[in-house]
Amino acid sequence: MEKHANQIEYEKRIGRVLITEQEIKEEIKKAGEKISALYDGRPILLVAILKGSFVFMADLSRAINAPCEVAFMCAQSYFSGTESSGKVNIVMDLDRDVSKYHVVIVEDIVDTGRTLKYLHKLIGDRNPLSLHVVTLLDKKERRVVDFTPDISLFEIPDYFVIGYGLDCDEKYRNLPYIAEYKVNI
Ligand code: 5GP
Fold this sequence. Notes:
Blueprint: H1 5-12, E1 14-19, H2 21-39, E2 44-50, H3 54-62, E3 68-80, E4 83-92, E5 102-110, H4 114-124, E6 130-138, E7 151-155, E8 161-162, E9 178-181
Parallel strand pairs: 2-3, 2-5, 5-6, 6-7
Antiparallel strand pairs: 1-9, 3-4, 8-9
Helix pairs in contact: 2-3
The chain binds guanosine-5'-monophosphate.
């Protein structure tokens, strides 16, 4: 059967694989061990920032060997050109009071840092027992505000990436690896 035109267009845009499935798996195992040791049985609430972090959250939570709960927040960053403006729209807020938890924000990628700086303050102001940030990817060289995640699994150069939760126009989130997105083909 011939491939549908959509399928051909979809595949053409998937560039070089930057991080393989196996590499992600290994780093998540280490991050899970680190988080388990850090809290040592105290009540952890993992807060995934949707949609990008849904895959990372699923795997990271299963690598944590300690009592933990999960919660979700859906945030949309406003972009001016290709950069987030720092104005964040909370599309779906948390379903609980965080003041009884050690909160770990689970993010897919930190780019300019504006989104996480905003969310870190927003959640911090609700007085969690403690607050940490873990990100799968970090584009350190793109930072425009002062923000450093507590745990970062991979530092990547300034490429637009897709896969493992990260999208382009809502597609490619289901790729099991991180790849470069081909803007020009
Ligand atoms: P920041 O506020 O740190 O500039 O932007 C963070 C948000 O921008 C991320 O949560 C993500 O949604 C989006 N973003 C930044 N870089 C990339 C990228 O390379 N690929 C994808 N798919 N999204 C990105």
